Amino acid sequence: MLIIGIAGGTGSGKTTVVRKIIESLPAGEVVLLPQDSYYKDSSHVPVEERQNINFDHPDAFEWNLLSKHVALLKEGKCIEQPTYSYLTCTRQPETIHIEPREVVIIEGILALCDKKLRNMMDLKIFVDADPDERLIRVIQRDVVERGRTAEAVMERYTRVLKPMHLQFIEPCKRYADLIVPEGGSNQVAIDILTMYIKNTSVGHETASDNLLPAFFSFLCIVLPQQTSSSTGRSPLHTIWNKSKIAENSLF
User: Fold this and answer.
1) pLDDT in tens, 182-206
2) Whole-angstrom distance, CA of residue 105 vs CA of residue 119
3) What is the DSSP letter of 221?
4) Do 6 and 111 touch, CB atoms closer than 8 A?
5) Please, are residues 204 and 103 in contact by the beta-carbon 8 Å criterion?
6) What are phi and psi of 241, to 5 degrees?
7) CA–CA distance, 7 with 109 (Å, rounded to integer)
8) What integer best gives the mean pLDDT of the chain?
9) What is the pLDDT of residue 173?
10) Measured between alpha carbons, how far is residue 52 from residues 47, 48, 76, 104, 240 in Å?
């Protein structure tokens, strides 16, 4: 079993990256554990006070339950994943039955924040995006999906999202094995990541495994020297490869 953590700021494109990865793998091979499903239940908090809850702070999550569920899946056991309502800010009575699969993806803004959970991961990814792009996506999402006004979203961004991002989310970059800039629009990075998953997960070990170290070395050493005249960036300024890949002898 391959356990992958995918973190990044709100609106960075994490969900799109995860969706494209899942679509690229055989059906039924991936289990997705959204970190949002593990928010602490706030049903005991008065309704008028729930909107003041800081959902971007590590204390908002039930880390022990998430770690326990990952451990159970790793042991080959099924779990009942909780569900959470953004409209009522409460955990719902319904659960989702999850069975173990070859690949487990834990996705959320602070997926790399908790040390115990982080130590259970085989691959840690941080999805990055410019702050203005993230803000636009947050406004579009919260207005449509969560019934908030644009003014309310902007106020919350200034008061909560931005300071929490700088304090807790951005520092998680240092734990990442791979950093994917430009979020879900970075198809090259997604393709490379999918290739790595296919070649690492059980049942996909082939003779091409021996080519993967050279392939990553080519991407991380040769291609970054090729810059775009319009952006000044390499067309493959896609993945910053750190310690985990080195441990796996991909260099």
Assistant:
1) 888 888 888 888 888 888 875 544 4
2) 14
3) I
4) yes
5) no
6) -95, 125
7) 5
8) 81
9) 93
10) 10, 8, 39, 32, 36
Q: Write out the two tokens for 27.
A: 């059906």
Please, which residues have CB within 8 angstroms of residue 232's CB and are 6 or more apart in sequence? none
β-strand pairing of 240-241 with 178-180: antiparallel
Alpha-carbon span 100 to 75, nearest angstrom: 8
106 CB contacts (<8 Å, ≥6 apart)? 3, 4, 5, 6, 33, 35, 66, 70, 117, 121
What secondary structure letter does DSSP report for 241?
E
Nearest CA to 30 out of 4, 57, 53 is that of 4
**Smallest Cα–Cα separation from 18: which of 180, 146, 174, 158?**
180
Residue 179 has what DSSP assignment? E
Give me the DSSP letters along 71-137. HHHHTT--EEEEEEETTTTEEEEEEEEE---SEEEEESTTTTT-HHHHTT-SEEEEE---HHHHHHH
How much is the pTM? 0.78
Inter-CA distances, 239 with 89, 96, 151, 211, Å = 35, 33, 35, 18
